Amino acid sequence: MRTLYHNWLSPHSRKVRIVLGEKKLAFDLEVEKTWERREGFLRLNPAGEVPVLVEANGTAISGSQVISEYLDESHPTPPLMGAGPLERAEVRRLCQWFDEKFDREVTVNLVGEKIMKRFLGLGSPDSTAIRAGKANINHHLAYIGYLVERRTWLAGDHLTLADITAAAHVSCVDYLGDVPWANFALAKDWYARIKSRPSFRSLLQDHIPGAPPPRHYQDLDF
Amino acid sequence: MRTLYHNWLSPHSRKVRIVLGEKKLAFDLEVEKTWERREGFLRLNPAGEVPVLVEANGTAISGSQVISEYLDESHPTPPLMGAGPLERAEVRRLCQWFDEKFDREVTVNLVGEKIMKRFLGLGSPDSTAIRAGKANINHHLAYIGYLVERRTWLAGDHLTLADITAAAHVSCVDYLGDVPWANFALAKDWYARIKSRPSFRSLLQDHIPGAPPPRHYQDLDF
């Protein structure tokens, strides 16, 4: 059986969980406290970060984009990267948009400050960072709306890794109740479509002790 | 003719210049002052970052990894991504290592502080950041040495995008004279091999007004 080393509110880990679900590949989940820098884990991934996927034969693959592309190449059905070089370039551009830009502008400011800091005993959340995160997410939700108004899914006519990446990030912020859904109907409609997929179900059952999600987090009709 | 929008000491731009050179694809170079947030450029790449490649037919592709994979798919000779899902995963893991980890730990601290800050009139360099960058690069040079001791190139028996990505980052720091080559013979041997490739030549001729490179920067026998 393959094993995915992950953290609960790591959007990068969530991205791989959804990909594994879409590909209908069975896997065990192992929580890795990356901040403890466990030696056995550093041997799997010298960068010391989750997610890491370990195949049944022991092969270890690190990084959410790397793992996702590897899974799409080795299990091509359903295809998640688009057809042809240009479509794949658009899928990859949007993956990077959310994995880097959204991560830096939103996830780190909200999930980082509200959850990770408390977990790691790094003091109280920085209210300036939280304000920045709450302001920044508006631009990203507007961008999602702009894209799905012109296309069925973020990168084109089919669900791709771009949607999965964006939804993984949004889901972490939604766990905190910090997504202003009321102002972004198009983005909300897109997220409702992803949220109702079987591959998303396990994410909605995540429950961090001492930091329960808001009531609407699990609700498919939010 | 295709056009590459770039900045001189952007390792991400340099990476694409080398890939275009390895693929023997002709291109025009356009310097983009991304900090001016020019409207025409933001239409090409809403993230506002270089590199952006614009094909002769007007198609724009953004981001160094995205452009590189696009070029490798549309111009497969010579192959730069490795053969098979596992080899490609290793190439991509190392690309990410240098594009994110090296960038954050070394490039931003050295090139960002010494060159970009001065360019943008953001005050004098932060000596703590520079000390951190100079300490961090040692680990990365040791890692390069560890890899090439076991393999011919970083990801295996052939030159791949992993080598190109690493060399693009290292070349920017080398322009500042901040690579401690004397202590890292294996990494130095690897860099000498890349530096002598025709695809690298134009990088060695870069010359930023007011910030000339050290004498050894262009020297193939450094």
Automatic annotation (TrEMBL), chains A, B:
SUPFAM superfamilies for this protein: GST C-terminal domain-like, Thioredoxin-like
GO molecular function: glutathione transferase activity
Protein name per its UniProtKB record: Glutathione S-transferase
Record-annotated membrane-spanning stretches: none
InterPro entries: Glutathione-S-Trfase_C-like, Glutathione-S-Trfase_C_sf, Glutathione_S-Trfase, Glutathione_S-Trfase_N, GST_C, Thioredoxin-like_sf
Domain GST N-terminal: 1-79
One record GO biological process: glutathione metabolic process
Phylogenetic lineage: Bacteria, Pseudomonadati, Pseudomonadota, Alphaproteobacteria, Rhodospirillales
Keywords tagged on the record: Transferase
UniProt cross-references to PROSITE patterns, sorted A to Z: GST_CTER (PS50405), GST_NTER (PS50404)
Matching Pfam families: GST_C (PF00043), GST_N_2 (PF13409)
Oligomer and partners: Homodimer.
Domain GST C-terminal: 84-220
Keyword Transferase (UniProt): yes
